[in-house]
Amino acid sequence: MAQxxxxxxxxxxxxxxxxxxxxxxxxxxxxxxxxxxxYHAVITYKELAETVQRTSGVRTTALLHNWIGGVLGQVVRxxxxxxxxxxxxxxxxxxxxxVGEGYREVLTxxxxxxxxxxxxxxxHAAAARLDCYRRFGAALPPDxxxxxxxxxxxxxxxxxxxxxxxxxxxxxxGCYVQxxxxxxxxxxx
Length: 189
What we know:
Layout: E1 6-8, H1 17-36, E2 43-44, H2 45-56, E3 58-60, H3 68-82, E4 91-92, H4 104-109, H5 118-135, H6 151-163
Parallel strand pairs: 2-4
Antiparallel strand pairs: 1-3
C-alpha cells in the first residue's frame, strides 16, 4: 500500500501538495488575524501547522519544514495584496522564538533589502508584529504599544546577558590610569 503524503481526513482522498498548501494558507490567514488580536502574542510554526491541518481537514505526513514555507509565502503575498501588515511575523520557531529564514519573503515582497543579521530580522519582525496588533484590534497600552521580540527569544537574550560578567577595568599600579587593551601603560612604559 502506498503511503499518502497529503489527504482529506473526511474520505482519505489524495490532495496535491499545491492544493493542500493553498487550503492551509486560506486557513492560516484568519488564524493569524486572531493571534494579532492579542498584544505581544505569537504562534509557533508547529501550532499553526496543526491548526491549519485540523481546520482544513487536510493532513500530511510531510515534514513541517518541507511545506510550511510555501503556506506562509502565500500568506505574505495575500497580506501585501490586501494592504495588511505581514502576519507571518507572528509565526516563530518553538526552539528559539525567532521568525526564521523564510521571513526574507516579507522583506522581498515589501521591496526591502534582506536583514544583514538575525537580530536585525527579529527587530523588523517585532515592528511588523506591532503593526499587526494595531491593525487587527489588540488591546494596546495607553502609549500605543512597543515592538517586542518574541518571549522565548527575549528570555534567551536576557539569560545570555545575565551570564556575562561585567568587565573589570585594569588599572596601572604606577599611575592609576586604566590600562589599554594591550595591558601596558602608555604613560609608565
